[in-house]
Design brief:
The protein is of the alpha/beta class and 329 residues long. Helices cover 39% and strands 18% of the residues. A hairpin with a 2-residue loop joins strand 6 (135-137) and strand 7. Helix 4 (143-160) runs parallel beside helix 5. The N and C termini lie far apart (41 Å).
């Protein structure tokens, strides 16, 4: 018995061609930024135990990985250093060493694979013997003293040739200070991707394993945001935009889709989402157990981030996604 219906939404789901024709959100390889871990040494690649398929690379092998990414059409890589313990101290001064690991990596990438964009992290936790994003005194994270070091770090990365500096530390005023210093030194073309809404999340564990950058004491709740807060994210974005950020970020992504949506509605700046290590690890672990179709869950998760409003996504899945998208065309 036929219903007397004017509207039948299933009409447009009837075939694959129809579904593709009316698809509202698209995930493209051009949307991806590939985070990579670099370490000292030669001809070594160490898998991160809590992040199956992700590795720490020495610089020679990192260059090969970056070249593969570029050949797949991935437009950008984000670099994170594994700093030896003997180079860490309470002030994080290794972060602005002109011959530091990140500075050397940036120079080599820009020399050998100039077409790919390089994004460099601006924060002290990989370099700080306390494992915090800022300088510590008597158990307190010092804001303004930390910003002075972050400015030096950003300038050293700009001098090395980075395309984008990405302050992830969540210190107040650091975007404005970095923008002013970059402009004064003639680095007006270096963009700032601000980690504007970075939450004090439990999803970062595998990343800290990868870099050995977990706090030696306490937590990061005095500078990273409370996961319960949404309006606060809009305030952080507003401040970073006023201070000169070129792009803003929400981190993590999957449990914060509502924040991505709100931020996208609140700013005209490009919005990035960081598909963080814990989100990656959960999918990989469930896939290894045979509980989910890992590739389908991966694609659905990233598509959700785009649907929420992300213009770009930092994701450890970047190469896998690029290969899948290449096969689909």
């Amino acid at each position: 018995m036929s219903q007397d219906l004017i509207y039948r939404p299933r009409r447009l789901r009837r075939t694959e061609a129809l579904r593709q024709l009316v698809q509202e959100t698209h995930l493209r390889v051009q949307d991806l930024i590939y985070p990579l871990f670099v370490m000292e040494g030669e001809n070594q690649r160490q898998e991160v135990e809590s992040m199956p398929g992700c590795y720490r690379y020495t610089l020679d092998l990192l260059l090969k990985e970056v070249e593969e990414a570029a050949n797949l059409g991935i437009p950008a890589v984000a670099l994170f250093p594994v700093v030896p313990e003997e180079k860490k101290d309470p002030t994080g001064r290794e972060s602005f060493n002109p011959e530091g690991l990140i500075q050397r990596a940036v120079r080599r990438i820009k020399q050998e694979i100039p077409e790919i964009l390089v994004v460099t992290d601006v924060a002290l936790d990989p370099y700080n013997s306390d494992g915090h994003d800022g300088i510590v005194r008597d158990g307190v994270i010092l804001n303004d003293e930390t910003v002075e070091v972050l400015v030096k770090q950003a300038l050293s990365q700009a001098e090395a040739g980075t395309d984008v500096v990405a302050p992830s530390d969540m210190m107040d005023g650091r975007v404005g200070a970095i923008r002013e210093a970059l402009d004064e030194q003639g680095y007006t073309e270096v963009a700032i991707l601000a980690y504007s809404a970075k939450y004090a999340s439990a999803f970062y564990g595998p990343f800290r394993d990868a870099l050995g950058s977990a706090p030696k004491w306490g937590d990061k709740k005095t500078y990273q945001m409370d996961p319960a807060n949404a309006r606060e994210a809009l305030r952080e974005v507003e401040l970073d935009e006023a201070e000169g950020a070129d792009m803003v970020m929400v981190k993590p992504a999957l449990a914060y889709l509502d924040i991505i949506y709100r931020v996208k509605e609140a700013t005209d700046l490009p919005v990035a989402a960081y598909n963080v290590s814990g989100e990656y690890a959960m999918i990989k672990a469930a896939e290894q157990k045979g509980w989910i179709d890992g590739k389908k869950v991966m694609m659905e998760s990233l598509l959700a981030m785009k649907r929420a409003g992300a213009d770009m996504i930092l994701t450890y899945f970047a190469k896998e996604v690029a290969l899948l998208l290449k096969q689909s065309y």
